[in-house]
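Example 4.3 (complexes with small molecules)
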Amino acid sequence: MSSSSNLVAMKKVVQQLRFEASINRVKVSQAAADLQQFCLQNALQDPLLTGVSSSTNPFRPQKVCSFFASSGALPSHIAARPAECNRPLRLRRMNHGTTLLWNRRCGQLGLLGCVVLTELRRHDATPEPALAPPLVAANILEMMLQDGSTHLLCLTASSGVPLFTRGAPRQLPFPVIGSLNGVHMFGGGQGVVLSSCETEGGGKVVWRVFRDSVMLIAVSGGGSSSKEEEARLQRLLEDVWSCMVLVLGQDELTNMRNVERLKRDLRSCFSLIDQLLEERQQGILGNLTHCADSLLPPNPALLQQAVDGFAQAADSEFGCLLVHGRIAAATEKWWRLAPQEVVLLSAVIRSLSASGSASCDYPVFLPHGSPTVAHRLLRFQLLPGVDVCVLAESELVGLFWSPLVEALRDCLALGKRCMPTSVSLRPDVLALLLINRDTRRSVSCVRTHPLPSDPPLPSEARCWELLKLLYIFSSTRYFSQEEALCVSPEERSQRGNTEDFVLGFSHQPLQCYSVTDECKSYGLQTAQHQLFLLMPPSVPTFALRSVATQTLSDIVAATGF
Amino acid sequence: MADVPAPGSVVVSDWHRCKDSKEYFNKILHKKRRKNFGLLESPVMPPHAAVDTVHYKIFISGKSGVGKTALAARLAGLNIPPVHYETTGIETTVVYWPVKLRESGRVLFFRLQLWDCGENALRRFDHLLPSCKEQVDAVLFLFSFTDRPSFDDLSNQIGKWNGPSVGRVAKLVVGTKFDLFMHCDVAERDVRDFQETMGLPLLRVGGEVSDGLGDVALLLNCPGRAAVASGLCHSWIGPPPVTAGGRDSSLIQRS
Ligand SMILES: Nc1nc2c(ncn2[C@@H]2O[C@H](COP(=O)(O)OP(=O)(O)OP(=O)(O)O)[C@@H](O)[C@H]2O)c(=O)[nH]1
Ligand SMILES: [Mg+2]
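Answer. The structure with magnesium ion bound is encoded below.
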């Protein structure tokens, strides 16, 4: 280093020190008070606190969701100064709640909104119909979102030909479908994968393309908090795709030679898809948890042996016994199916069982294990409410199961309790959901309370509802989400629905609780289990933890779950 | 088929209305609704009144949406699906039904196993039709009164079930959605003409399921040249009915 440059540097330091010495010093407390005063004085002008009034906001959207607005009169500022839109928070506000979540190969929240608006603007000047999404009257989308239900659209990914829509009481107008597809396609053209979007009213749109062949779009009126709703819709799309593969096989869905024929064939998936959308059966949480809803029989060894023997005799390694739609016993191979498959097959069997038929022979593809070769799913209704299934061929029902009628009746008698009477639950447990994180199985129950209490305890239906909410709340916020095996790491990063809260910590929350007027709830996580408990408000808050830990150890000790 | 006995000549028709049938029908009813039997269950009579059970396999044929699944549910006294969801494989439904043989006065339980296979599934998977056809005793050919092409295709469908390879199978034509007369697309005269040329019994169904008993009785006593019950008995037991006990038991084992 030369001495002259050294001198220059020293001079700079001296200059800086002089400058700092001349500054008038105040105490920290004084500075803090000044800052506070300044903030309060200027609070009215702070757009972060008050939002931007629509008259001064140059980026004001015409309608709820600006890219669906029919008017093309978007201000030119955006096109001129896109750099100013870089800050996600700001853009969010400017769009009046129209948040676009997306991921470029990991970009920021909100930028796409800017890109889309910019392009729309350009489109106004020089029409480029192939690029810009078609414009729709925003009120159609609003109407869709209002009734709070979930709508599902399916299109071909390459050309955007509508294949089907479900969940809507009436057919969606083509322009709506067209623009939902158009926005996504447009993003694709910009090197951006649009994954979800939120409207001012709390509505949500989620896009996903499967195998480059089929695009699924879910639209929901929202209601619950956005993070949770988005996670739910993402999972819904994944499950819907699995249903389609299960019934039709992957080949038919990806080698799309004849769209009209595919359209017709897709009708055979509607029963399962509608079941997913409606969540018909109370007390079945598999779609939510991706864990197999299970029932712990009083005589597990006996039934296990019978299922193993039955499957073997049927020349199959996959066998499973369902009681009240929950798995009571299954062969080892059955448990080695992807968790999502186990849940899906249970759903298929439940819907067949609900029809009251005596036996079924259904060709099914396994979305992960065998997406291109169909297996035969044979289901036999042993007793109303008890079904046995194998993936293969079998005609030996009576031989294997007749001696077990009484054991099966004992299982049936458990009802929705799902656990043998040898497990003594504490009286102050209203409802519980227990997940085994290793086996991806779950048991859940809501207890009916004979004694009236004041204030009245939540009804059975409400308890199921609360249990679901507790699960969603805890698992999206605190406990790590165990994704199904099917999600590739790349997709996982794309989806990014893990709560920032968790990401900000180096450790894992292990317990959480909440107290409301209706009930108190507790979530507990160990290396092997997750337990979610509802208790009456009368239980003292300090006791929640011990009730939870004791319940967990009671169940595990008695059943080995 | 000239040797098929006349309707009502083998089993007592409308026996479910007779007093002496009550103790038998009680076994298939629960709280005035039809009982749903699992495969491990069957109506059980007290030891002194034990009766044999005769098994039949009945295949329901017809194009997608004509009402195959609905008919199976109707005959079993189950809830009829209000919307059309395609059946994507085979579903079987079991119907127990006591009958009284006219000649001997002997009572039997019919165990009708209805095989319902979605039309589109049949087209997509080759293995389904053979298992439906295997050892089948009767076929119900469905058409819908609201769907003319389904009626026009009948003779073609029935034709596939003639010939030596199929063996002796009782056949019956069922017209569904008879209640939707506003949308009726098949004239009564056409139906009569058809019946005359084909010489098959024809049943019209539709509307609400009443007590869940009438429909099965209708099916079994269906007027025509061969009442189905007679046809069934004829195809397996043959007149005189149920001579060989061994025949019965082999049928029972077959399931
Ligand atoms: N009004 C009326 N509707 C009927 C009748 N039978 C069937 N339906 C309706 O017709 C629709 C189709 O009936 P399904 O029984 O599901 O049709 P399917 O023949 O099983 O069709 P696939 O399984 O696709 O081969 C359903 O919505 C039924 O409710 C009837 O007798 N009257
Ligand atoms: Mg059907």
